[in-house]
């Protein structure tokens, strides 16, 4: 399993091509093996591919804007081929499906299945990344369970350790539930301050990443990327997390 970084963690530094080049250089020196890209890129997709190859940091997966996936999937496919990525991800279920009604979850399931079938024809996969609300119940069903059970086997998942914990479950449980359908796991640490869940640099919170890595390996995950939604010093936090996880991998 390769260890890397979700570039969303460094988004404030990725305003232009120079920001991406700096990120690739610094992350390579920190020991990253892969990266994930997210959202609208502030760099030409072909140039992103050049940087990926130059620094030996493959783009393992993406998070794409949902509207673009609905309206221009063919263009997204071309862009992903430019930077050598065959795994496309959805970062969050759009609000129009989060109505508390199972019929709307079914519409999202259909979208996932149809889009995964489209991407399969191009040798690509579609993955879904969870937040906290997937662990709520809709008409008696835990939404995350419903997604796993009702999507086709070619729909993949991106388990996020922080949000699974916020949802009230152990990350290992849902990593195991999605076994065989995981390309990338998001490593994100967690603690509570005054009863409120708080993001922490990986290795500075309460999650057991040795156990999480073991569950990820057993589930067949190919990559695990460090992510931090908020940090006063993103590069320092990412570097700490990479060092921490790489030491766990060695020992």
Task: Describe the structure in your own words.
By secondary structure, the protein is an alpha/beta fold. It is 43% helix and 20% strand. It contains ten helices and twelve strands. The chain has helices spanning 17-30, 45-55, 66-71, 73-82, 102-120, 143-150, 161-166, 171-177, 209-218, 234-250, and strands at residues 2-6, 34-38, 59-63, 87-90, 125-129, 137-138, 141-142, 155-158, 184-187, 189-193, 196-200, 223-226. The strands form four sheets. Strands 3-2-1-12-9 form a five-stranded parallel sheet, with helices on one face. Strands 4-5-8 form a three-stranded parallel sheet. Strands 6-7 form a two-stranded antiparallel ribbon. Helix 1 (17-30) runs parallel beside helix 2 (45-55). It is globular. It starts with a strand and ends with a helix. The model has no long low-confidence stretch (mean pLDDT 97).
- The shape is globular
Report Rg.
17 Å
CA-CA gap between termini? 14 Å
Based on helices, strands and strand pairing, what is the structural class? alpha/beta
Strand order of the largest sheet: 3-2-1-12-9
Pattern of helices and strands: EHEHEHHEHEEEHEHHEEEHEH
Which percent range fits the helix content? Answer: 40-55%
Defining traits:
single chain, 251 residues, alpha/beta, five-stranded parallel beta sheet
Walk me through the topology.
Elements: E1 2-6, H1 17-30, E2 34-38, H2 45-55, E3 59-63, H3 66-71, H4 73-82, E4 87-90, H5 102-120, E5 125-129, E6 137-138, E7 141-142, H6 143-150, E8 155-158, H7 161-166, H8 171-177, E9 184-187, E10 189-193, E11 196-200, H9 209-218, E12 223-226, H10 234-250
Parallel strand pairs: 1-2, 1-12, 2-3, 4-5, 5-8, 9-12
Antiparallel strand pairs: 6-7, 10-11
Helix pairs in contact: 1-2, 8-9
